Every structure is written in C-alpha cells, then in structure tokens.
Amino acid sequence: MSVDDNSIGAQNSGTELTINWALAMEHLRAPVLQAAVESLNLPPGSRGLDAACGIGLQAIRLAEAAGPGGHVTGLDISAGMLRYAEKMVKQAGLSERISFEQGSVEVLPFDDNSFDWAWSADFVGYAPLPPLPLIGELVRVTRPGGTVAILAWSSERLLPGYPVLEAHLGATGAGIAPFVKGKDPETHFSRSMGWLRKIGLVDIRANTFVGSAFAPLGDDLRGALTALFEMRWPGVQAELSTADLVEFRRLCLPESPD
C-alpha cells in the first residue's frame, strides 16, 4: 500500500470516529444545542452560515429556526463529514433549505456581507487555531447589523458527588490538554467576551446553556456519556492512584453497571 493510500485510510478512520462521537453525544447535547439556537431569535426567512458544520446536526436546527423562507449554508473542510451531512439533511426533508460547501473557516469562500448571521459550534477557540482571525472571517461575511454566534462546550463537573476524583482526572495530561496545556490564557473560552470586543463587535452577550443527565440512564444517554468519557479522559489510568482507578473504572467505563 502506498503512503497516499495509508493517509486516506487514516483520514477515513478519523472521520468515521468523529461521526460516531457526534451521533452518540447528540442524545446528551440535543436540549442544550436546541436552547442555544432558539436564543438567537433568527429572523424568519434569513440566510445564515454554519461554519465548521460537521455532519449537519446544527444546520438542521438553524434551518428550522430560520423558517421556510430561510437558507443555511454549511461549510466544513472534511468531504466525508459533508457527505454524511447531505444524507442527514435529505432525511430531514430540508435539502431545499440547506446547502453545503467544502472549505476552511480560516479563509471563508464567500463575499463580504453574504449572510444575515454566522454560527460556529465546537470550532472557534479550539486549538491549534487562534480565535480572533476566525471570528474576523465570520464578521467579514456577515452583513452590518447581523449576528455572529459561537458555541463552545465544557465537560467539567461530569461526576457530581465525586469532586476529588474529577479534580484528579482533570489534572492528568488528557484532562489538562483541552483547557490550558500550551494555550495562551487569553484564548480560553472564559475570555471570549474579550475576543469579540477586540474584533469590533458590539452588543455582546454570553449565555450558558446547561443540560442534565442522571440515573437511571437509558441506552442513548449511557452511550452518549460513554463516548464523552472516552473523548475527555483517554489513557488516564496510568496517572491515577489505586483508589482513583477503582472509582474511575466503576463510574466511567461502559462495562461497569454503575
């Protein structure tokens, strides 16, 4: 097998894993994401951009929020993600109201003032790309007076009642990486209001959307939490004490009844 074939295989494998994670965690995140979209109060019939749209889950919500006369353009750099997104949109009966383009958020392939609003979830502010240039691109393609919205998640406080274990998990290499390892403190999501001011936006608002999941868990939520734990704390076992490892296995691994 050639090097190129190996590269394609690895890329396809990574795309499939990301799609599976997105589908699994949709059961956990759906109420939070829906609340975030509804908070935007998108004008009926408006045209918007879903930047780094992934498999199209948010594009569908945004199109429904914009109403029958609206249109959403989803953009993602992954051809595999876009193929899956097109299937999902077709199943939802929204192919006339949602279209997709392949491209990078770093240099959006759209003219200035192309959209009434721009949205990006789970992308702006994540390493390794600095947030300000990305927000600048979203602002550029949004008309004056329009809305630019970014959504980011925090997976802290996943183990209520076990603050010491969760603190220890957060102090592992995997636990630290998404938040502070190698990151300028100014790029942390808690500083995002400052990003928006620096880029020249006005009427800046921040909302926190909180969902909850608690026992007894159905199969969908159990699968969602399993996927989240696997993504959040990979390979931490070697860094835990014996007592923490027992609790981690009991609470966080899918083979445990707890």
Chain-wise SSE layout:
Layout: H1 3-39, E1 47-51, H2 57-66, E2 71-76, H3 79-91, E3 98-102, E4 115-121, H4 131-140, E5 142-151, H5 163-170, H6 173-176, H7 192-198, H8 219-232, H9 242-252
Parallel strand pairs: 1-2, 1-4, 2-3, 4-5
Helix pairs in contact: 1-2, 1-8
Walkthrough of the structure:
By secondary structure, the protein is α/β, with parallel strands linked by helices. It has helices spanning 3-39, 57-66, 79-91, 131-140, 163-170, 173-176, 192-198, 219-232, 242-252; strands at 47-51, 71-76, 98-102, 115-121, 142-151. The chain has a five-stranded parallel sheet with strand order 3-2-1-4-5, with helices on both faces.
